[in-house]
Amino acid sequence: MERNIMATRELSFLDHLEELRWHLIRATLAVAIGGVLAFMAKGFIFDILLFGPSNVDFFTYDVLCRLTTWVGFEGGFCYRGEMPFSIQSRTMGGQFSAHVWTSVTAGFIIAFPYIIYEFWKFISPAMHRQERNSARGFILISSVLFFIGVLFGYYVISPLSINFLGRYQVSSQVLNEFDIGSYIGLVRSSVIASGLIFELPIIIYFLSKIGIVTPSGLRKYRKFALVGVLILSAIITPPDILSQILVAIPVLVLYEISIVISGIVLKRSKAN
Q1: Which terminus of the chain has a smaller tally of CB atoms within 10 A, N or C?
Q2: What ranges do the domains of the chain cover?
């Protein structure tokens, strides 16, 4: 009898693994399709998007120039001419490798809503009907937050980092000639990291559902979270105050929103 029970449990576990495997396969296929589309749109992806922040007429620089001029603060964003650096490829397969990995990254961004859909399809059967109803809109909200984070990384973190690092010199004798992999890696990490950071409210929602996080705990450790956010903004942005403030503010807002979300989850669980 015990053997039959163990066999049933083992079969159930293997069935879950098989189901997870197919979810991962479909999600990977979606990333591949998005990557192929991005691969064919090479001109737009590289000339318009990736190399956009390397031009002085980029949207963010214009906005910051107007803002710093208006407040009377010289932030180094108003300038003419060209950026004082060049982008090169120093290896035989450098450009092709950059093209492939950039396409994969773009494919992940394009397919993110479908990836979240597959994740939801896998975990939703284990939830009660009421829990599924309360989590309605999960795919839409997660996707919107992710894309907002991607835009924030592209229009704020990337240009701030490129502007600072591209202009920084230890000596006038050292020229800034960046490898294409280094440049694209900076933009890619900024965009993906910001997109995932903006998923904080969703993460807090599920952690609150299983009782790991509470609103009182989030309020209690708010000061530590503030320090962590400042450290994070110092790591992913250039070491100037303006850049760190621009990055820290939305993350702190997301933290406060997460406290509200955790409180709503706790209130609903007590009502049930």
Answers
A1: N
A2: 2-198
